[in-house]
Please model this.
Amino acid sequence: MKILVVGSGGREHALVWKLASSPRVSQLYCAPGNAGISQLATCVSVPATDLAGLKAFAEDNAVDLTVVGPEAPLALGIADLFRENKLKVFGPTRNAAKIESSKSFAKNLMMRQRIPTAEARVFESVRPALDYLERCALPIVVKADGLAQGKGVVVARTAQVAKDAVISMLEHRTFGDAGTRVMIEECLEGEELTLMAFADGKTVAPMLAAQDHKRLGEGDTGPNTGGMGAYAPAPLATPALRYAIMRDVLHPAIEGLSRVGSPFFGVLYAGLMVKDGTPYVLEFNARFGDPETQVVLPLLKTDLADVLEAVVEHQLDQIHLEWFEESAVCVVMASGGYPGKYAQDLPITGLRDVSGRDRVAVFHAGTAWNGPDVVTAGGRVLGVTAWGPSLRAAHDRAYEAGRRISFEGQYFRTDIAGRVLT
Ligand code: AMP
Ligand code: GLY
Model:
């Protein structure tokens, strides 16, 4: 089987790494990939949003299956284009991906399907939004409707912060067209949890639950980032809670999409707030999470190629997902200054030292080759991942490996999985 993975981050490195271990996979391509990915797959310099270029590549190289990592190509309709051209693709159509690419679409779906979520109102102009804010209790959450690379959510503790967010999104168009609508949402409290599931339109097969660390600073402080680390399985996700998420969130969401003529094929990601044992949806994503994928895939025992193919063939009911009874921790090493401005092209040392270690994988998120050297090429640079018989063992191995790697200005949180370990 020849597989093309679309994307260039840590999630795509984890996908390529897992697929590389499948005896069924004869050739792996990644577009555009990164330095780490290039050690396992042939990297092709086609950007993830160049749909015509990706289609041409898949046709010219007789690719059997294309696996889409990021949301942008899905929102642009890569799955529609590939299907129209009889190319097999893992990922939802543009209409089904609206569950991620339009927060108002997702909220309406949740209302119709009675999926527990925060109360929200949608606005397209500043005045009514500000008037509404006057009547809201604090804290309050302001969200850009469209895709904003995880930066379109402001949890406002003061009225001024909420107002500024509305004005910057609707008037100053900080997020471009993603901010032509804003959603003002009740702030939920509780503990966050991610449950991703494979879905083929009918069958829903959940993965292990994970927890992401979105804030930059220790103890979940500071600005939101793309994710500073993750661990799985999350002890919070008891069998009873997983059952409730399937019954009250994932199944109704999949049914709701089918009902409006947009059946969902791919990975449905539920970002949840758990309060008193009840899961409330913060967001849906139409793809694998990053960095959750980096901790979930190392624990998957089943051949990933079989699972992806079963989704595409609508035969997911034939697959029984099996997991190693271990835990995994991923610590993200970021460039100094991230999520603001940061330097690039800085040499990374120590990678060779940790390569080939048992139950350790360093997933590259933002790296490139500079001659023979691997250099930094993004805000999140590496996801140092380890797994073992306990969360403690995985944690210690990940940090031990991370200590051997360095680049100028590197930053990482020292408390990934800390809350469940203490
Ligand atoms: P999202 O991109 O919608 O997941 O939002 C990013 C982050 O903002 C989430 O991971 C939460 O930490 C926070 N957040 C989003 N919506 C809410 C909400 N309604 N209440 C509390 N926190 C929220
Ligand atoms: N970990 C958050 C996301 O993938 O959107």
Q: What stands out?
A: The radius of gyration is 21 Å. The chain has a mean pLDDT of 96. Residues 107 and 120 are 8 Å apart (CA to CA).
